Amino acid sequence: MNQAFALFNAGRFDEMESLANLLKAKYQGSGFAWKVLGIALLLQGKDALASLQMTAKLLPNDADTQHNLGAALKDIGRLDEALVNCRRALTLKPDFAEAHSNLGNVLLSLGKFDEAVASCRTALQIKPDFAEAYSNLGNALRGLGQLSEAIVSCRKALEINPNFAEAHCNLGVILQDQGEFQSASESYFRALSIKPGIAGVQSNLCNVLRLLGRMNEAIASGRKAIDLKPNDAEAHCNLGNAFQDIGELDRATACYRQALAINPNLVIACSNLGTVLLAQGHYDDALVSLKSALEINAEFVDAHSNLGAALQVLGQHDEAAASFRRALAIKPDFTVAQSNLLFCLSHSESVDAQSLFAEHIRFGEQFEAPLRAQWPQLSNSRDPERRLQVGFVSGDLHNHAMASFIEPVLAHLSRHQHLSLHAYSNSAIEDE
Q1: Is 344 exposed, middle or buried (0-12, 13-18, 19+ CB in 10 A)?
Q2: Rounded mean pLDDT of 275-297?
Q3: 140, exposed or middle or buried, with CB in 10 Å at 0-12, 13-18, 19+?
Q4: String of DSSP letters for 337-401
Q5: How many Cα atoms sit within 13 Å of 33 on the Cβ side?
Q6: Which of 3, 274, 275, 430 is most buried when burial is the number of CB atoms within 10 A of its CB?
Q7: What is the SS3 assignment for 412?
């Protein structure tokens, strides 16, 4: 028993597993032997469930075992059972900080964010320097949309334990939610420098690097995530997003289909597959995929918007407008859907000029008005003879109608000696 404790304290969990198997063989029916085995397997990320269930049978009043069993059940998605075991552990030992924190983690996975926050705070009242509880609290606060408080909590976890890879990962997710993609990528890289084999972090990093326009790195991270965890549907989907961004549509399609083969209910993969099929000209298949996404989740706003785009391509402008409006009913500040609605209405024979203009005015009031107070006070020279620097920004400076339309405009304006023209492409696509 002393040897088992020494191996545990030294972090030599593989040797601890071997010792537990020897103990179990020599002392049949020993709850301690089964407990050591379960802990050793759990700490190595191995399947510990059977060992922990046997331990609970032999040691029904052992709070540690109930807690560990709850953690194992949570890891395999058996959340209701995990909840029972965590609460059983706390019945046996009310001041068990780790069990309060783990209960918070289970409640978080069940979407019970308020209860999760309360459990994590209880853990911290008992054990104020508990880094894992601060990290879990950060996750729960994120679930409530309290992102600033969530960041503070994760950073507190990292003050206590700077090498806590999971806390770096959690911080990265929250920063990503806030749109701070560069800071999020730094948190993910830090997590991977501590634990290189965390598939979920590689997958998240793929997404963030894609949003930063670092496409080669994004694709490399996506592939690493899949190498580490081949059956991670979200990793396949994230890699598909990166391929879609650079116009590699066949590869994107393959990624989305693989994601859906693993998890047929992954709504984002179903929706994104629809957009790629649309871009490839497979209109009927695109509509089927987008409608399937809405069968999975009728409130999935991107699917409504993407369906609108597909219907618009097919010339069904009124139906497309209805889809965009459904997206906006769910998410009123969804700028992509609002912009697409205006574009769609511009092609509709059933919309008169006054109604179309009113829609554009409404767009300006909704999205421009809140920004007016932040407009900079320009210090440009007011000399009417000075040369004007004019910038054109577009995501369509490639094989796209916009490139064709803008070329004669640029050719005409370039003849004016008082204008200096600059073009900025914010697309990852490069072609002829």
Answers
A1: buried
A2: 94
A3: buried
A4: HHHHHHHHHTT-TTS-HHHHHHHHHHHHHHHTGGGGGG---------TTSPEEEEEEES--SSSH
A5: 13
A6: 274
A7: helix
Residues 6+ apart with CB under 8 A from 240: 251, 252, 253, 254, 255, 256, 259, 269, 272, 273, 276
Render pLDDT for 235-248 as a digit per residue (tens, 0 to 9): 999 999 999 999 99
Distance CA 271, CA 290 (A): 5
DSSP 170-236: HHHHHHHHTT-HHHHHHHHHHHHHH-TT-HHHHHHHHHHHHHTT-HHHHHHHHHHHHHH-TT-HHHH
Other Cβ atoms less than 10 A from the Cβ of 404: the count is: 10
pTM of the complete model beyond 0.70: yes
Backbone angles phi, psi at 388, to 5 degrees: -85, 135
> Where on the phi/psi map is residue 164: left (φ > 0), alpha (ψ -120 to 50), or beta?
beta
One-letter amino acid at 199 equals A
Structure tokens at 40: 């050793």
The token pair at 299 is 């409130």
- φ, ψ dihedrals at 420, nearest 5°: -115, 115
The DSSP bridge partners found for residue 423 are 392
pLDDT at 8: 85
Residue 59's closest CA among 87, 79, 89, 19?
89
Q: What is the pLDDT of residue 204?
A: 95
The whole-number average pLDDT for the span 63-87 is 90
Distance CA 420, CA 422 (A): 7
What the block records as the tokens of 84 is 């029972």
